Amino acid sequence: MRSALLELHLANLLLSMTLLFTRFIDWPVPVLICARALLGAAGLWFYLKVMGWRSGSRQAEPDGETEAASAPTKATSSEATKGRMLFWLILSGMLLAAHWMTFFQAGRLSTIALAMVAMYTYPLMTALVEPFLEGRVDFRRSGVDVALAALATAGIAIIGLSAASLDRMGLLFGLISAALLTARNLIIRRRLHTQNGSRIMMIQLTAAGALLLPALVFMPFSVKPGDALNLILLGLVFTAFSHTLLVRAILRMSARTASIIASIQPVYSAIFAFLILKESPTLATALGGSIVVLCAILESARQKHREA
Fold this sequence. Notes:
Layout: H1 2-15, H2 21-24, H3 29-51, H4 64-69, H5 71-109, H6 112-119, H7 122-134, H8 139-161, H9 168-191, H10 197-211, H11 213-218, H12 227-252, H13 255-262, H14 265-277, H15 283-307
C-alpha cells in the first residue's frame, strides 16, 4: 500500500535524527537507551489504552455448538499461541536493546561514520537471509533485491570509510548490531505478522527497558536543564512513534524491501548534521548519498509496482 511506503519514509526521516540526541543528552549509553525505551513503552501503553485495544490480533469467533464442543481444545491452543507470541515479542525486544547497545558501542570504539557503515550492512544481510526463510531461494525473483542492497551498502561505505580510520573492534560491533537488527526485523515479519504494530513496539520497548533497568541503579548520571524535554522527544516521537511506523511498514511489505529503503537514513543523518550541527558534507558523502537515494527510489518504485 502507498501508505506503508509513506510511513516507512517518515520513520526513516525521524530515526535518522536519533543519534543527534546522544549529543544533546550526556548520559551513559545504557541509561539513555533504557530511559528512551521505558518512556516510549509508556507512551504506547497510554495510546493503546485510549484506543481501547484489547488484543494484538483479530481472529474470527466461532459460535453455536461447535464453539461449545471445542472450547477446551481451542482455549489450550489459544494459550499456547499467546505464549509463543509473547516469547517472540520479548525476544525481539531484547534483540532491539542489544542492537542499540552494540551500535552505540561501535560509535564509541571507532567513529560514528564507521559505525553507520557497519550497521547499515543489514539491508544486504536481510536480502540474503529472507529468501532462505521463505523456502524459495529463487534469485531470479530476489536477485534485484540483493543487488540493490549491495549497491546501497556500497554507497554507505563510500560515506563512512572516507572519513574513518578502520578500527576492527568498532567494525565488529557494528556488524553485530546489523545482524541483531536483521534478526529482529525478520521475527516481526515472519512471527508477529498477525499482531498490531503499536502493541508489538510497546512490548519490545518494555522488554528492552527491563533488560537495561539495572543501568538506572548502578550507573551514575546527572540530569541537566533541557534533558527532560529532549528525553520526551526521543522516547515518544523518535522512538515510540517512529519505530511503530517502521514496524507497521515491515508488516505490510517484505523485510528486505523495508531494509533497503531504510538505507537512506545515513543520508538524512548527514543532512541534519549539516543543518543542526553545521557539519559540512564531503564529496564522498554526496556521492555515497546519491547512490543510496537512488537505491531507495528504485526499491520504492518496485514496491509500488508489486502493489499495482
